[in-house]
């Protein structure tokens, strides 16, 4: 989802950009080394991950392999070839308490297997000796992947009412905004370290869903308004526990790279327009 939007934007900005998928398995050191030797990139961006948060509770080996060993391999290869590496991580390595948004320097506090493996991946990278930027993001949606916005629009068109969790707080993020931020960081070639980037503003999944409904109705993607009720996480059991507070502070990325962070509602409105174009409406 992120990789495709990043590649399109990079190409639109005039960068030569190679998009790989499972053809370069990030857990295979030989494959990564060969790819770097053949292509000699001057930056590497890792958008690859195992992102099935609930399945990760049972597919523990694959989750660890992709989310921890993958970054370890990339860090080792990037250090050997002296190529700066930008890695994408997640708010799920943290969990805190309101009201303050979480800072990149806050202590790790993963509450599920996915968050733990992503934390290990970060640690491997920080120890690798490579020049690394780690950007943690959250609640990502984009035109090229399965995501909360698409799921909600589909359910709102088929169900009579919906229940959505209203005791988890975070920041929705559009892949296009994140891709812009990534390109700015890459161009700097400096200030390696951990950063946070998400949409601006804190919300709950339920309020996020209400905004999707409002915009979906406005843009003709939804034909009827249905009741949406807030429920507690304890009433909506999932295999993986989610952090109750993973709102991220963007102060560091804003002040270091002069990056502007759009309000999540504005980005959602742009994304819904894109969905409308794709639906041919
Ligand atoms: N989605 C979110 O809400 C969210 C939130 C916070 C952070 N993030 C992070 O943001 C980044 C991008 O997420 P996304 O939602 O764009 O992910 P995504 O759509 O699930 O894409 C991940 C890609 O990685 C590929 N992949 C899996 N194992 C691989 C391997 N061993 N070698 C090479 N490629 C492999 C997957 O291929 P297959 O599909 O063929 O397996 C998939 O194309 C990830 O680091 C994720 O952890 C995402």
Write the layout of secondary structure elements.
Layout lengths: L1 H11 L16 H11 L4 E3 L13 H22 L3 E6 L22 H15 L4 E6 L2 E2 L6 H11 L3 E4 L3 E2 L2 E2 H14 L4 E4 L6 E2 H14 L9 E4 L19 H7 L6 H15 L3
Parallel strand pairs: 1-2, 2-3, 3-8, 4-7, 5-10
Antiparallel strand pairs: 6-9
Helix pairs in contact: 1-6, 2-3, 3-4, 5-7, 7-9
The chain binds NADP nicotinamide-adenine-dinucleotide phosphate.
Which features characterize this protein?
single chain; 281 residues; alpha/beta; Rossmann fold; four-stranded parallel sheet; two-stranded parallel sheet; 9 helices; 10 strands; 43% helix; globular; binds NADP nicotinamide-adenine-dinucleotide phosphate
Walkthrough of the structure:
By secondary structure, the chain is an alpha/beta fold. Helices cover 43% and strands 12% of the residues. The protein has 9 helices and 10 strands. The strands form 4 sheets. It has a 4-stranded parallel sheet with strand order 1-2-3-8, with helices on both faces. The chain has a two-stranded parallel sheet with strand order 4-7. The longest helix has 22 residues, at 60-81. The protein is globular and about 55 Å long. The mean pLDDT is 97. The structure holds NADP nicotinamide-adenine-dinucleotide phosphate (NAP).
């Amino acid at each position: 989802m992120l990789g495709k939007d990043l590649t399109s934007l990079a190409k639109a900005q005039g960068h030569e950009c190679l998009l790989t998928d499972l053809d370069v398995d990030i857990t295979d050191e030989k494959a990564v080394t060969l790819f770097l030797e053949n292509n000699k990139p001057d930056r590497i961006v890792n958008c690859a991950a195992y992102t099935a948060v609930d399945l990760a509770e049972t597919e523990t080996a694959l989750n660890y392999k992709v989310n921890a060993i993958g970054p370890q391999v990339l860090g080792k290869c990037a250090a050997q070839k002296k190529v700066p590496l930008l890695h994408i991580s997640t708010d799920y390595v943290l969990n805190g308490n309101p009201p303050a948004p979480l800072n990149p320097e806050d202590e790790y506090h993963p509450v599920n297997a996915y968050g733990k493996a992503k934390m290990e991946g970060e640690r491997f990278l920080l120890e690798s000796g490579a020049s690394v930027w780690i950007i943690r993001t959250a609640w990502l949606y984009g035109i090229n992947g399965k995501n909360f916005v698409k799921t909600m629009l589909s359910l709102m068109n088929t169900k009579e009412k919906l229940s959505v969790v209203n005791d988890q707080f975070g920041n929705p993020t559009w892949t296009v905004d994140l891709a812009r931020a990534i390109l700015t960081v890459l161009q700097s070639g400096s200030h390696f370290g951990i950063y946070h980037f998400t949409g601006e503003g804190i919300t709950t999944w339920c309020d996020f869903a209400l905004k999707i409904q409002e915009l979906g109705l406005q843009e003709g993607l939804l034909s009827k308004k249905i009741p949406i009720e807030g429920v507690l996480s304890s009433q909506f059991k999932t295999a993986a526990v989610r952090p109750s507070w993973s709102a991220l502070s963007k102060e560091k990325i804003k002040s270091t790279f002069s990056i502007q962070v759009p309000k999540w509602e504005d980005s959602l409105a742009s994304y819904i327009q894109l969905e409308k174009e794709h639906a041919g409406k």
